[in-house]
Amino acid sequence: MITLQHRTIAHFDLDCFFVSVECLHDNSLKGKPLLVGGKSDRAVVAACSYEARRFGIHSAMPMKTALRLCPHAIVRSGDMEQYSYFSRMVTDTIAEKAPLYEKASIDEFYLDISGMDKFFGSLKWTSELRSLIMKRTKLPISFGLASNKMVSKVATDEAKPNGQLEIPFGFEKSFLAPMPIDKIPMVGKETAAQLRRRGVETVKTLSEIPIGLLEAWMGKNGITLWNKANGIDDSPVVPYYEQKSISTENTFHADTIDVQFMQRELVRMTEKIGFELRQQEKLTGCVTVKIRYSDFETVTKQISIPYTACDHVLLSHVKALFEKLYDRRLLVRLIGVRFSHLVQGNYQINLFDDTQEMIALYQAIDSIKDQFGAEFLMRGCNVKNGETSEKQILPFLKESGGTMRKRYHGR
């Protein structure tokens, strides 16, 4: 019987994924400082090559800053459709071979291959899968093999670029020990600075701090941090096929053929579950629209899309599906929207041609919805005849002392 501590977990990560796809289409880009993102000064870097990183460039950096650091960098606007295509190709290849896998993001996968060493040899099997992925996609991919997800992820980072690394069971702690503390997943700049102020520079030092003291410093996160520093991580590989969709639907009080009303409802529902996507830090790769007519006949139509969580992108697909699906001769009883094929990811990676202001706008909208509820902000098309609802704005007016009343009604 295989116990939890004797698991065998492989972590696969496509190296500089967006950059690698761009280089696949244009060989002349290989070995050069390449930035993927919007081309305007106000855009941000979605991804950058290793050559660009040597100049101090990193993802999410303003493009203007990146080009100041490396004026001769090459900029590509990005093609989410192509990135989604290759992500799905890798997913399909892993699905063919792996007994249990989790798609952690558009370019990152965890595989639980516990017990397979009895039949194939875990390292040999994983190496052959990596070779198959590279043969099919022509893209570089690295993997780490260890007894848990956290150590395998760190091993992958150490194996890059385009390499592989196995950490045998029992060597997790010694593998992590000499590394700087920010090599541990979950240790960001603030946590690292807090630990360094206390003289903690390496994972070894962190692992030797009494767990109670770390808990006193950082609360429950201190316990998690101690476990990671000691190479302990019991988190399971979540089967990809069990990833749930996000959906919503509305049964009308009276059957209708009012197209404008139904379109307003589609906008409202899309914004609602688009917000849920971003809250969960997920992207969707498939949009479905559902219509139920008054005779209870139910029809659906779906489309695979480049991974996104941006309302303005999702709305265009939802509206297009509705136009193709709706029979204007029949009364409608219910409409619904579903997002599926979900993967972990930040919605900002889809904003290749958008400015920092667009990203800031999404962040501001989501921040307000977090505070006052998802129904507080809506697109203008959902406010019938220019009317505003006191019920919708009252909580915010109370919170802000009424200071927003004039601005709200004046828009």
Automatic annotation (TrEMBL):
Function, as annotated: Poorly processive, error-prone DNA polymerase involved in untargeted mutagenesis. Copies undamaged DNA at stalled replication forks, which arise in vivo from mismatched or misaligned primer ends. These misaligned primers can be extended by PolIV. Exhibits no 3'-5' exonuclease (proofreading) activity. May be involved in translesional synthesis, in conjunction with the beta clamp from PolIII.
Gene that produces this protein: dinB
Cofactor requirement: Mg(2+)
Family annotation (Pfam families): IMS, IMS_C, IMS_HHH_1
InterPro entries: DNA/RNA_pol_sf, DNA_pol_Y-fam_lit_finger_sf, DNA_pol_Y-fam_little_finger, DNA_polymerase-Y, DNApol_IV, IMS_HHH_1, Rev_trsase/Diguanyl_cyclase, UmuC
Subcellular location(s) per record: Cytoplasm
A GO molecular function held by the record: magnesium ion binding
Cofactor binding annotation: Binds 2 magnesium ions per subunit.
Protein's recorded name: DNA polymerase IV
Subunit structure: Monomer.
Active site: E108
PROSITE patterns: UMUC
